[in-house]
Specification:
Jelly Rolls; 30% strand; five-stranded antiparallel beta sheet; 1 helix; mainly beta; four-stranded antiparallel beta sheet; 11 strands
Length: 239
């Protein structure tokens, strides 16, 4: 009888011991949890689904395709002269020079200057001012821009002279036509009109043949006297 009680107590203790060994992570007895065998978590590859047909599109990996990039459209050439009265300084104009070397052995060109002045103007409040050192008895300075005019036949530009003079010191230099392959030089300009043939402002007119397509319009001054001189031009227009 004592032996049976001892065996019964041993069996009860064994049952309690097994119950205490159950999983502490909330699993029921008889279940085992092996964390070392958990599969490695991998983020699924991202895809996009088209709403219309349900097809999937692989994500862009940054590899460029073979579609060529179209060239940008070139800006359109204006049909009228811009800033013809020089109210916006020399905006829209490009400065050009064809100057001789200084007298003597120097290879440096004679001095020249170009800019705008508010001291006098025939249109607006500013005008183009050009100064040239005539010590080499030669030299031309100008501004130019490209236009694609429609139905024009005349270039007009205003020139200012302090007083009328029989001496020819400065002449107007004008050009309307295609851009020369090697660029403009003094020989390309019409220099038939002298600047000091009047007092005050005068409008000079030139018959032109603009032809088809863009042309270069250039206006400036050329010096033909061995002295320094400054002249003023304004209100350049095509009509």
């Amino acid at each position: 009888m004592e032996r049976r009680r001892f065996l019964f107590g041993t069996a009860a203790a064994s049952t309690a011991l097994l119950a205490g060994c159950s999983s502490s992570d909330g699993s029921t007895p008889g279940e085992t949890t092996d964390e070392s065998d958990d599969p490695e978590t991998t983020a699924p590859e991202e895809t996009t689904t088209s709403p219309d047909d349900g097809t999937t599109t692989e994500p862009d990996d940054g590899t460029p395709d073979d579609t060529p990039t179209p060239d940008p459209e070139p800006p359109e050439t204006p049909t009228e002269i811009r800033n013809g009265s020089f109210e916006d300084d020399l905006s829209a104009w490009t400065v050009g020079r064809d100057l001789p070397s200084q007298p003597g052995d120097s290879e440096e060109p004679v001095d020249s200057s170009i800019g705008t002045t508010s001291g006098r103007a025939s249109d607006g409040s500013s005008a183009l001012r050009i100064g040239i050192d005539g010590s080499a008895d030669d030299g031309t300075v100008w501004v130019k821009q490209t236009v694609d005019p429609e139905a024009v036949s005349t270039l007009r530009v205003d020139g200012y002279s302090e007083m009328e003079s029989f001496n020819t010191i400065l002449k107007l230099a004008t050009y309307v036509g295609p851009e020369p392959e090697d660029g403009l030089t003094e020989a390309d300009f019409d220099t038939t009109e002298k600047l000091a043939d009047h007092e005050g402002w005068k409008t000079y007119e030139y018959d032109i043949d603009a032809g088809d397509g863009p042309v270069v319009v250039a206006v400036g001054l050329t010096i033909v006297w061995e002295t320094g001189a400054t002249g003023v031009l304004d209100n350049v227009r095509l009509e």
